[in-house]
Amino acid sequence: MNSADLEKYSSAMTLSDMEIFIFPELIYSLVLANIMSPVIWRWREEESFKKLEGKDSMKKLLRLRQFIMDNYDFNLDLETWGLTTKQAEIKRFEKFLPRQQLARSNALFGYEGDKYYFDVDIRKHFGLDKYDSEIIPYWKTETVEAMNAFRRKSGYSTGAGECVSLSTLYAAAAFIVCGIPLEDIFMMQTPLHSQNFIDIEDGVLTNNRRLVTKTMWFNGSEISNKAQRALRNENITIVAHNTGYIHCLYPDATIDKSRYEHFTNRLASFLSNDFTMQSCASFMRSFPQYQKYYQACRDCHGLAQFIKAETLFSYEHNSKYRIAESTHNKLIEEASEEDFVSDPMPGRVRCDQLEQLISKKHPDPRTSEGRELLIQLYKPYIPDAEQMVAKMADFLHSQAKLPAAEKNYTQAEPIKISTSSTRQEIIDYLQSIRKINPTADLAFYAYRDMTSCDWQPFIKAAMERSPVSIEKYKSLSIEQVYEQLQKMENHSIYDGGRLAQPDEVANYNSGDGIEKAFLLANIIRSRNPEQNLKITVNNSRAELLGKATYAFESEKGFQKDFEL
């Protein structure tokens, strides 16, 4: 491999957030690696999923959400995959992008997209304030096997992963378990987050472990407001799809142009809502300071009665019913009689009259005409009526900051796999297109299939980007490390001819003999960079040869010699 390809293919082994930003093919390669994995295919045998056979995709997707929430934690621990430095990463990648662009596009290099994070100090927010300002985390993305292996770490009772890991897990599982075609799954990355847009019904966003429907996006709850933060404030740097990708900085795009246009239209529709009584109630839920300017009305034996909006909202907290929804009347019934008065309260908008205005005039606060109509309605009651209407318009409409559509679209072979295909059929198909589709080729590296991949990228990643194993054993001599590895469980987290990187072995305290040999070689190399090392694997025996010979038992069945 030339140096550029070696950098890219070795990045498929480590999959840090920065590597994915530089090589956007990698995020979809991990999706395909997870689709090839036997792990997610076993989920289809879960009784809760088998009960949903024949049901629509949304029901399956909602069940998948609960399964993921039950079995995976969100993890952003800085030390899980170790630390690096700004200068080391900039030096590594500046041959692909100028360092000024790197700094503007990554959260830890000076990016300031989401004002919230910078108001609280991003380094403090991520726990980096205890380190020198040059120190940054690797934040590697986990395969489903590595996510599951968190159960082996102290303090974890379930699997875990960071946001990119969860988004790629969701994409693969939506395809395998829910039968959602890859054509309907669009992956979005921002400098601080990763999520998917699934093109079913009105659209569904995956957001870490959760799902967000359009109704949820506009319900005004605290959790929904947090889910909006990335799309409202950050630039979307990459959109990935089975037809290819588009990147905010690269002039070429491989995604199908018509599918990208379709996605942008569907996402825009998802992020916009009409001004209705329901959306007005959601606005008040999100901005409770305005509740005091509203009053709700009910009919009591032919007479009107009124209740403060903030009082009615307080009943929502302990009720399954919601204001302005189909359950509104049931919520009204739960309110105490003492909370109602017979005369309209001065200084408050009557919601029944507002509803009449909406049904007749259909005001849209995003238009000048609609804004003026609402400002005139609210002015007698609300001191900052103009400001409130502006906030309402912003609440009802978000503009995603997508990569510009003006790109040089290059023809790429799309990934064409059917939801009816078997796992082996998919693997065979991806093998068949490796020479014409780089994403499919990289998928086998992310999958760690060392029976069909060049070993050079694996070795480069193992020897250059495995700081956790070095740190874990830094107080031990090489002989003591060897003794520890001999006592460690001799089992890889990957099946067959697939291999873990040294830091996965160190983190999960388990590894095949060949994986342990690479871990020990990484430690020796860090202490004595000039020492010649060789790994020899002969079926059931792996040996690391240096100043001494270190032998391990292997179940992988390789016959290889490696000069490190």
Instruction: Output mean pLDDT.
Output: 93
Number of strands: 19
Number of domains: 3
Shape: elongated
Give the strand order, joined by hyphens, for the main sheet.
8-7-6-5-9-10
| Overall helicity | 40-55%
Q: What percent strand? A: 5-15%
Number of helices: 28
User: Which structural class should the secondary elements be placed in?
Assistant: alpha+beta
How far is it from the N-terminal to the C-terminal residue, by CA? Answer: 16 Å
Low-confidence stretches: 111-118
Kindly provide the radius of gyration, computed on alpha-carbon positions and rounded to a whole number of angstroms: 27 Å
Question: What does the largest sheet look like?
Answer: 6 strands, antiparallel
Explain the overall architecture.
This protein has a six-stranded antiparallel beta sheet, with helices on both faces. It has a four-stranded antiparallel beta sheet with strand order 18-17-16-19, with helices on one face. It has a three-stranded mixed beta sheet with strand order 13-12-14. It has 28 helices and 19 strands. It is of the alpha+beta class and 564 residues long. Helix 1 (3-14) packs across helix 23 and helix 20 (368-378) crosses helix 21 (385-396). The longest helix has 15 residues, at 57-71. The two termini are 16 Å apart. A hairpin with a 5-residue loop joins strand 6 and strand 7 (204-207). It has three domains: 3-272 and 401-446, no CATH class; 277-396, no CATH class; 455-563, no CATH class. Mean pLDDT is 93; it is low at 111-118.
Brief summary:
With about 575 residues, this protein is of the alpha+beta class.
